[in-house]
Design a protein that fits this description.
The chain is of the alpha+beta class. It has a domain of 203 residues: Isoleucyl-tRNA Synthetase, domain 2 (Alpha-Beta Complex), CATH 3.90.740. It is built from 19 helices and 21 strands. The protein has a six-stranded mixed sheet, sandwiched between helices. The chain is elongated. The chain starts with 11 loop residues before the first helix and ends in a 10-residue tail after the last helix. It binds zinc ion (2 copies). The site of one zinc ion (ZN) has 7 residues, from loops.
């Protein structure tokens, strides 16, 4: 083997090919790995790419860096295992299959059949495997692609289940109600890193609405950019220590009166003047402290929830109300916003959701029933205008999140969800992060630390089809809410009242939805329908790639729980 530098046909790409050929022929990677077998370990974790997408330039960068570090450590005399892996679950796979089959939403998938749909997902997962293998070899990334871990395999899922059961038994998993960014088309909540990928500058309607105070001669002025949430309104929030003004619109005796933050009067009426020189001037009649309105009732804009009684449709105080824009009075819809939900919880408000999670109005919403939220926006504005309750309509350009896969606008909706108490480990994680030798240091002190400091409990459930089923079975019996976690295939088969055949065992939907367990109370336990966040799959890799603790127990514990390991959080 030589570089043949003086050959007429020498090129660097050609030289690289020659070297790769030599490595292949002499099995250099395998032999180097074999020779290092008994040396001290340097642990390398290959975060798995999704093989149903083509590799991109960012993969080239990350793979080059990974290889450099591993090579350097190997040359220093360490044993560096380089197990490859593939991320095979989740939305990216489902969306590809949906597109190919012409399915538009979750209903279509159900009609098509979950078993067949998931089979299509499974078949499509390795569409670009050859591209990946070629790229990996050509960039000289030494990686064991002969024995990769694959997140869809039963063994892998079994390890993920084992972890989840361990968390469950330690009371680190709970079911809650939280406001999540939700894609109405995909029908699932998105994680914050997914949301961050889809912000776009868009123009939405911005409307100022007059909501009549009960038994008073004025209306509260409210600003919103999501008119479709108005039918789900149950409260108005003011800033209790701010000054509000009762303003007469125009100088005429008996003219209409509205309430808004005193600091915003000028701004709001200037906005009217911009479009219409003859717009009325404000006449401030009285200045009132925000706290004085708290508890006041108002007349709901719509009559979709006649059963609601006070404290619904009253004015409440909230710290998050600002006087920067709008009117200083915030419309509260606890079903559609994290702040709103918190206020609702505090005040004991109902949580109406006039729309289905698919973004279409429910039947109870009268003339809007079945309407898509964005279409309803226009209709609602029109109706408010007819009712004389529209103060002003504008366009509002702002940055709004869209689904990174299907491009639907996300909505913030309160959903039942399963959580891991990651916040219980915030301190331990920060401590660990500070002990890491980050390169460059800002990645640790900045981005990672900020993220850890602001850590919130991890919402791990996903309402989809192709992924690791959450291994929690819930009792159906009335007055029994027992939940049992299943942490192994052995447990599943021994506790199931209708165990699946071992030869055809598939730890996915729909097979796992058919397995029932018997509750202590005698009732039937069924699996909850949700799947696990695909990021949990890849995050479980340090254990699951070795099928821990069912295999390779010693190897994994030696790596993962060294003598000074202390990050158990409690
Ligand atoms: Zn989507
Ligand atoms: Zn029970």
């Amino acid at each position: 083997m030589s570089f043949k530098q003086f050959d007429r046909d020498f090129t660097w790409p050609k030289a690289e090919e020659d070297i790769l050929e030599f490595w292949d022929k002499e099995r250099i990677f395998e032999r180097a790995t074999e020779a290092a077998k008994d040396r001290e370990q340097f642990v390398f974790y290959e975060g798995p790419p999704t093989a149903n997408g083509r590799p991109g330039i960012h993969h080239l960068i990350s793979r080059t860096i990974k290889d450099m570090v591993c090579r350097y450590k190997a040359m220093q005399g360490f044993r560096v295992d380089r197990k490859g892996g593939w991320d095979t679950h989740g939305l990216p796979v489902e969306i590809e299959v949906e597109k190919r089959l012409g399915l538009k939403n979750k209903k279509d998938v159900l009609k098509y059949g979950v078993a067949e749909f998931n089979q299509q997902c499974r078949d499509s997962v390795f569409t670009y495997l050859e591209d990946w293998n070629r790229l990996t070899r050509r960039t000289a990334f030494w990686l064991d692609l002969e024995n990769p871990y694959v997140t869809l395999e039963n063994n892998y899922i079994e390890s993920v289940w084992w972890i989840l059961k361990d968390f469950f038994d330690r009371d680190l998993i709970y079911q809650g109600h939280r406001t999540v960014p939700f894609c109405p088309r995909c029908g699932t909540g998105l994680s914050s890193h997914e949301v961050a990928q889809g912000y776009e500058e868009v123009s939405d309607p911005s409307v100022y609405v007059k909501i009549k105070a009960r038994d008073k001669d004025y209306s509260f002025l409210v600003w919103t950019t999501t008119p479709w949430t108005l039918p789900s309104n149950v409260a108005l929030a003011v800033k209790s220590d701010a000054e509000y003004a009762i303003v007469q619109i125009g100088a005429e005796e008996g003219a209409e009166k509205i309430v808004l933050a005193k600091d915003l009067v000028e701004q709001v009426f200037a906005m009217l003047k911009r479009d219409d020189k003859n717009a009325p001037d404000p006449k401030i009649l009285e200045t009132v402290n925000g706290s004085e309105f708290v508890g006041d009732e108002y007349e709901p804009l719509f009559d979709f929830y006649p059963e609601f009684k006070a404290p619904a449709y009253t004015v409440v105080a909230a710290d998050f109300v600002t006087l920067n824009d709008g009117s200083g009075i915030v419309h509260i819809a606890p079903g559609f916003g994290a702040d709103d939900y918190e206020v609702g919880k505090r005040e004991g408000l109902p949580v109406p959701q006039a729309i289905e999670p698919n973004g279409h109005f429910k039947d109870l919403a009268g003339k809007y029933a079945g309407m898509w939220i964005k279409d309803a926006d226009l209709e609602i504005i029109k109706d408010l205008k007819i009712a004389g309750q529209l103060f002003k309509k504008q366009k509002y350009v702002h940055s709004y999140p869209f689904c990174w896969r299907c491009h639907s606008p996300l909505i913030y909706i309160a959903r039942p969800s399963w959580y891991i108490r990651t916040t219980q480990f915030r301190g331990a994680m920060l401590e660990s992060s500070q002990a890491v030798n980050w390169k460059p240091p800002e990645t640790g002190s900045g981005r990672m630390n900020n993220w850890l400091e602001n850590n919130i409990d991890w919402s791990i459930s996903r309402e989809r089809f192709w992924g690791t089923p959450l291994p929690f079975w819930k009792c159906e019996a009335e007055k029994c809410d027992k939940v049992r976690a299943v942490g192994s295939v052995e447990q599943l088969l021994s506790e199931a009242t209708n165990p699946p055949s071992v030869d055809e065992l598939d730890l996915h939907k729909p097979q796992m939805d058919e397995v029932t367990l018997k509750c202590e109370c005698g009732g039937t336990m069924r699996r909850i329908p949700e799947l696990c966040d695909v990021w949990f799959d890849s995050g479980a890799m340090p254990f699951a790639q070795w099928h821990y603790p069912f295999e390779n127990k010693e190897l994994v514990e030696q790596i993962t729980f060294p003598a000074d390991f202390h990050c158990r959080g409690d």
